[in-house]
Amino acid sequence: MESAFRMVVTVTATVAPQILTNIISYARETGLTTTMDSDLSGADFCRFCRSEASSDRPLFHPCICTGSIKWIHQECLVQWMRYSRKEICELCGHRFSFMPIYSPDMPRRLPIRDVMGGLVTSVASAVKDWLHYTLVALAWLGIVPLTACRTYRCLFSASLDPVISLPFDIVSAENLAKDVFSGCFVVTCTLFSFIGLVWLREQIMHGGGPDWMERENLPAPPPEEIPLPENNNDRINEVPGEEGAEREEGIGDAGEDALVGDEANWNPMDWDRAAAEELTWARLLGLDGSMVFLEHVFWVVSLNTLFILVFAFCPYHIGRLGAALAGLTAEGPFAGPLTALAGYVLVGAILAVLHGIASLLRLRSAKKALGFCYVVVKVALLSVVEIGVIPLVCGWWLDLCSLSMFDATLKDRESSLHAAPWTLMFIHWLVGMVYVYYFASFILLLREVLRPGVLWFLKNLNDPDFSPVQVLVIPLRVPLEQSPVLFVWQDWALGVLYTKIVCALTMMGPDWTMRRAIEKAYRDGIREMDLKFILRDVAAPLVRWLGLALAVPYALAHSAAPLLVTAPVQRNLLARRVYPALLLLVVLGTLAVFQIRQFKKLYEHIKNDKYLVGQRLVNYDHRRHKQQRSSVAATN
């Protein structure tokens, strides 16, 4: 029994360390550990490998655990930490600590040359990373959208001169910011179009296409078996019995042998290589430090140009050609979208005709490809109609029906359309979209309308001097000869906003007293809220430190500063600038402390690289921890 328990503990510690807690608890309850201790005549042994100490492998007691699980080899603990990825004991929760062992020839202080060499190496690494990430940002946020915008503009120009000068226009600095923002919009449209195309293909491939495509993709039915007449030979008419079963077993054995052969040819290194080369977001965008992202940028630019050429340039010119053949001319600000829409209609009609011709000629592959293209164009047109045209028509219909309510005429709408066509269309589309999706909500809201004057304590939204931005946001800066007028409700609103920001930053920061207090208050909830705990551990520290931050600068500016500064203008300037000045000092002090800590880490890193020879596990000192607990209890 003891040997079996030892084997289970050893295997568990190596393969599944999280199960070790349950096994040791069971051993404690059944008294198995006591029996093993007695069998070993009181000798100490490792909790994992169950072997005793030796001259080259001493035993350590690095945590609070006692009894049969007190001792452990350093190699066993390091192996367990590597598998479990934990630095604390699963039983007692104590963190393991290691003491560094340095070379005997290590100087007391590192030479200046080594420190400067490490500092230069660190700065060079930081500059290299900065240059790499700058190149990544320029590639994805500059080159890709700029190329998309200027390629789009070049393809829709009326002459060949922009096409010839396209390589020079791409690197031009003229209208750079505007072209980058426009290119981001073009790239976003291309990306969503590509995602929609892939999604539509998956839907069609998995049985979501139209019926006529499903009928085309049905497999051919197998030929029917024709029953043959029985012969006069009884052996031929026999039903295969055991011999047939034996032959089937032989075939099965041969198949298993083939599988065994395949397993013999299986190489796990291929799987590791495939996992190492797996494409991730960091590798795709270039955030892993490699230059492979340049190839991805090239493919994105190429696919973006191809999408613009196929899904924008060709439909537009097909619609333009069809309008010219029909004797129609498209003018005005909406000539481009209407021409492209007409081109998509013509492309859909042409694809339908070609699909019918391929069906007559029994060209199976061409018929399938043309059918898929027709479905893509049809879905695109229906999406434009349902998402764009119908809400736009509803918005215009609501506007025309409500002209008398706003004392407006058709001439007013016509003049607004000529002045800002795209803005007016967007407003009507937005109103129509709201009407389509929230009609029921509007009905409920209209039933709850109250007479004017009931909500007297709220601001009048129809007041021409009313500005919601100015009501909520206090001016960031006023002249020195003026004083800001603050209201209590403004302080409360901004305080709520700042409190949420501070709580979010506290929860994202390191583990300290305020974070633990906020986490406990969040876990308790409103029903289990401890008012004494909230006042003592949350409200009191905040009020104390915020009160000191407000009172100390004010007291210094109005009591100590007048003793040194006599000019009223300078005193006023000092009183108004004391808070940002102290904030700047605090920020500079924080940065200085941060840089000192980083320099200490760099110093330790240089020392460990040059002189560290190993690490030694530190034993748990019960007396020292008892003294620490007693001192903490005495201070509380």
From TrEMBL:
Keywords: Membrane, Metal-binding, Transferase, Transmembrane, Transmembrane helix, Ubl conjugation pathway, Zinc, Zinc-finger. It is found in: Membrane. The keyword Cell membrane does not apply. Its main location: membrane. SUPFAM superfamilies: RING/U-box. Residues 212-254 are annotated as: Disordered. GO terms for cellular component: endoplasmic reticulum membrane. Pathway: Protein modification; protein ubiquitination. Residues 38-99 form the RING-CH-type domain. Coiled coil: none annotated. It is a multi-pass membrane protein. CDD domains: RING_CH-C4HC3_MARCH6. InterPro entries: MARCHF6-like_C, Znf_RING-CH, Znf_RING/FYVE/PHD. GO terms for biological process: ERAD pathway. It is an enzyme of class 2 (transferase). Pfam families: MARCHF6_C, RINGv. It catalyses: S-ubiquitinyl-[E2 ubiquitin-conjugating enzyme]-L-cysteine + [acceptor protein]-L-lysine = [E2 ubiquitin-conjugating enzyme]-L-cysteine + N(6)-ubiquitinyl-[acceptor protein]-L-lysine. This is RING-type E3 ubiquitin transferase. It comes from Papilio machaon. The lineage of its organism: Eukaryota, Metazoa, Ecdysozoa, Arthropoda, Hexapoda.
